[in-house]
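Page 42, continued from yesterday. The earlier attempt failed because a stray header line got pasted into the input along with the sequence. Redoing it now with the clean sequence only.
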Amino acid sequence: MLGFLVGYVVFCLPGSASGVSARGAAGLRLPCPLPPLPRAAPALLPERPFLLVPPEEEEEEEEEEEEGGEEGERGAPAAPRRRFPQALIVGVKKGGTRALLEFLRAHPDVRALGAEPHFFDRGYAKGLAWYRNLMPRTSEGQITMEKTPSYFVTKEAPRRIYNMSRDTKLIVVVRNPVTRAISDYTQTLSKSPGLPGFQALAFKNLSTGLIDTSWSALRIGIYAKHLEHWLRYFPVSSFLFVSGERLVSDPAREVGRVQDFLGLRRLVTDKHFYFNQTKGFPCLKKPEGGGGRPRCLGKSKGRPHPKIDPQVIQRLQDFYRPFNLKFYQMTGQDFGWD
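This time it went through. Structure tokens are written below.
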């Protein structure tokens, strides 16, 4: 007697000597006993919600697994290959994301894309295979990363990243939202000298002090509202919230926290940094062994901010305070902005 298990329905070929019959799915009586359901059957269920994942994306990931495993022939280490990022710096603009990425790139087990790919906000239609092909090649044990700060404020980004991998580690560099807004304005002003004044853009009505949250420079800083959307897809444990202020005042401490979060050895320490008084930012020292040179952020970083009326700053601080307090509750961290 031969039996075959298809899903949970048993079909038996005729010719059993047992003389015992069973009723199959189509109502036929089969001349063999029904075998018990195997205990491993639940493994046939999907390991993650499949309704959110477009079929073509799943197929691309499966093809990658077939193309190359973690070991080469005869157990030799596999050659470096392009992988989806295991960690993303998703925000925020003018929070210190470039500085953090450059500090992490000093770690030998981190390989990061230098340019911002903007895949999960602007280029998603190009497909995951295109995105993966942008990534640097990594060996087993190395981490692939990229940073695009606009992801944090893009409504579709959390779902799209979840569909790529629900295990993605998410890093958000945050900064006092008032200071961040002024820095954002300063950057835009450097590219568009004819831009209206900060105060004119920040308020819908100057006499009543009504804030214009449609202006992106102010909207980005409502961190609690953006985080609420992300928490529909990822638990808080998937995030690390980095203080942009401490990244300047104590870079080794904040980078140490990031290394722990990523499961990396703490190889980037205080001996790697020095403070550049001219730029007002920490820089990476010259690598040991005499090769290379000190690495500082580009000339676009550390621009002097325009002078803003103190009453305008106070009004913005009052506006952000309830959102900041909620953000502290959501993250379990007090960033000391109030």
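Notes: The radius of gyration is 27 Å.
Reminder to self: strip header lines before submitting.
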